[in-house]
Amino acid sequence: MLFLENLLFGIRADAAYTIRRLRRTILFGAIAAVFLLTAYGFAIFALAVALARDFGVVGAALAVSGGATALGVAIIAYVLVANSFERRARLPMSVRLKMATQQAGMAAAGTALTGGGMLGSRPLVSLATVAVVVFAGTRLGLWSKK
For residue range 123-137, what is the model confidence (pLDDT) as tens digits? Predict the structure, then answer.
């Protein structure tokens, strides 16, 4: 019971640390975002004033809005392309589940052979365990070549 209490205390301490860090990150991130958006707004205003001297107020407004629109469209296009590449690169769920079962079977066989000195002390048990794992893997079609 003492082990379980120590484990739960460790999990609680880790969770509290993570929550404090996340709260601090969100708070200071929001403050930084406010300052950055303010600076961005003044930069756009200064650009509009500078362009208004050369092209007039309407020309400056059109140039600033056109530039912002072009940047927005470029960012949306980048996100769509990146998501498309990631979606294609991700394996389907059936393949990922099959790989996970194969890895679990291999880990079980490896543990049966080497874990806890079983190979030296109980060779018949390790042989039976490996036989069961291989039999289950072949009967369930985990290692079949399709």
Answer: 677 777 777 777 777
Residue 108 to residue 118: CA distance in whole angstroms: 13
Q: Show Cβ contacts of residue 129 under 8 Å, excluding neighbours closer than 6 positions.
A: 108, 109, 112
DSSP structure class, residue 90: S
Q: DSSP letter string over 31-50?
A: HHHHHHHHHHHHHHHHHHHH
For 52, 91, 131, 133, 140, the CA distances from 97, given in Å and listed in that order, are 61, 10, 22, 17, 13
| CA-to-CA dists, residue 120 to 24, 114, 115, 116, angstroms | 54, 9, 10, 9
Q: Considering the entire predicted model, what is its pTM?
A: 0.45
- Cα–Cα distance measured from residue 127 to residue 133, given in angstroms and rounded to the nearest whole number: 10
* Three-state DSSP state, 80: helix
Answer for the pair 109, 130: CB distance below 8 angstroms, yes or no: yes
The secondary structure of residue 136, as a DSSP letter, is H
* pLDDT per position as a tens digit, 49-80: 999 999 999 998 899 899 889 998 999 999 99
* Residues making up the chain, counted from first to last: 146
